[in-house]
Write a structure and sequence with these properties.
Length: 433
């Protein structure tokens, strides 16, 4: 393992971080469990960063991919009709509830967001974009420009002149004491002020936003904010793009798309991660006129290829036929309620947030109550030692974030909750001593 780590460090750029003091190599998986190269087993509460949405070694997905491989056709390109792609696009268009929707497939969330931004800017003949503070939208040139999280901003180049809105920064002193309704009013007033004096609304193509910020530590605006924003945006024809890369497919339990919690239908939604259950697929679903409006020819060589879309169809069918959205609501509530109950005695736990199978815990210094990246690092190690894989993130790197496969059972949810709470207790005791 140390040998592989040394080889990794020698040839992989140093900004590709690996978790843990002693990074692990996952060599096999089944359901919600994985095994590392040392033979240690883990319950996986991070699922390849929300990507192994059904867990590991799912027969339905494997068989769909194997059938495609057996045909001899791995790739043809979009110069030819691809049945799997058309079928998957039909399903996603319908599920989107966007009228006359069309779908363009890519290989990643970054490319999906790039496509949505291009469609919005071309349609609006605009060059500026609104985004949320603390956001993450990808690692390509345009998506880095609309990413409001310095830890993930590879470059400050910004072709859009991005303006960042309030909404996910409620912990800041001026907002902390406001009710949901007051906070939404304050955010909307800020947007109105920006568009009525700060910038020319006609220059703005779209607002791009994650309904629940993934990399940002599962921070979220109060329900209804994006509907309130959209009323203002509609006055100017500015479009709304919901980045559903982490929140789509029922993960939030209450809704199939995260943005539905706000009671608003966006003009476009982008997706990636979970749809292929590990196979590379992303895309944008949006109003047909907007996606048709992108000029010139367009191709994403591998986007929507026969293998990825075979996996996508099988995964989506599985999510729907097993009502995994409901499972996310039920198992997620058990875990979130359990963490909240345990947190009452834990001085190192700050806010506990979450919705469905997307939940997070802020780690704070017990004395100052300030966010503590150091304690989050310790908690990450403590979970691994107990056989639980979780993620770490947040704007200040002080958040444990978790998103198990949507197939997790009630027993596994309780088991993972127990491991997590035990790890937090150990860090709490150490911090107090
Ligand atoms: N949007 C969001 C909300 C994401 O979480 C991510 C990936 N973490 C992306 C976009 C970019 O996706 P990808 O890494 O597939 O390019």
């Amino acid at each position: 393992m140390t040998d592989l780590l040394a080889r990794h460090r020698a040839v992989i750029p140093n900004w590709v971080n690996v978790y843990y003091d002693q990074p692990i190599e996952i060599v096999s998986g089944k359901g919600c469990r994985v095994t590392d190269s040392q033979g240690r087993g883990y319950l996986d509460f991070f699922a390849g960063i929300l990507t192994n949405m059904l867990g590991y070694d799912v027969a339905e997905v494997r068989e769909a991919v194997e059938r495609q491989l057996a045909s001899g056709v791995v790739h043809t390109s979009t110069l030819y009709l691809i049945r799997n792609q058309v079928e998957l696009a039909e399903k996603i268009a319908k599920l989107s509830q966007i009228p006359d929707a069309k779908v363009f497939f890519t290989n990643s969330g970054s490319e999906a967001n790039e496509t949505a931004l291009v469609a919005a800017l071309v349609a609006r003949k605009a060059n500026q974009v609104l985004a949320m503070r603390g956001s993450y939208h990808g690692r390509s040139f345009g998506t880095v420009a609309v990413t409001g999280n310095a830890a993930w901003k590879a470059s400050s180049n910004d072709p859009f002149g991005t303006h960042y809105l309030h909404g996910t920064d409620r912990q800041l002193p001026p907002y902390r004491t406001l009710s949901d309704a007051e906070f939404i009013d304050a955010c909307v007033a800020d947007l109105r002020a920006l568009l009525s004096g700060g910038i020319h609304p006609g220059d703005v193509g779209a607002l791009i936003a994650e309904p629940i910020q993934g990399v940002g530590g599962f921070t979220m605006a109060p329900d209804g904010l994006f509907a309130a924003y959209k009323e203002v945006l509609d006055e100017h024809g500015i479009l709304l793009i919901s980045d559903e890369v982490q929140t789509g497919w029922g993960r939030t339990g209450a809704h199939f798309w995260g943005i539905q919690a706000h009671g608003v239908t966006p003009d476009m939604m982008t997706f990636a991660k979970g749809l292929g259950n590990g196979f590379a697929i992303g895309g944008v679903v949006g109003r047909g006129d907007l996606l048709d409006g992108i000029r010139g020819n367009g191709i994403s060589t591998f986007g929507g290829n026969p293998v990825a879309t075979a996996a996508g169809n099988a995964t989506l069918d599985y999510v729907l036929s097993h009502d995994l959205q409901k499972n996310a609501a039920v198992t997620g509530a058990i875990i979130i309620d359990g963490i909240r109950a345990a947190a009452a005695d834990l001085a190192i736990v700050g806010e506990v947030r979450g919705r469905g199978l997307m939940f997070a815990v802020d780690l704070v210094d017990p004395a100052t109550k300030r966010l503590s990246p150091k304690l989050a690092g310790k908690a990450l190690e403590a979970t691994r030692e107990r056989g639980l894989l979780v993620g770490k993130g947040g704007l200040y790197g002080a958040t444990l974030r978790m998103a198990p496969p949507l197939t997790i059972s009630v027993a596994e949810a309780r088991e993972g909750l127990g491991l997590l709470v035990d790890a937090l207790r150990a860090v709490d005791t150490e911090a107090a001593g």
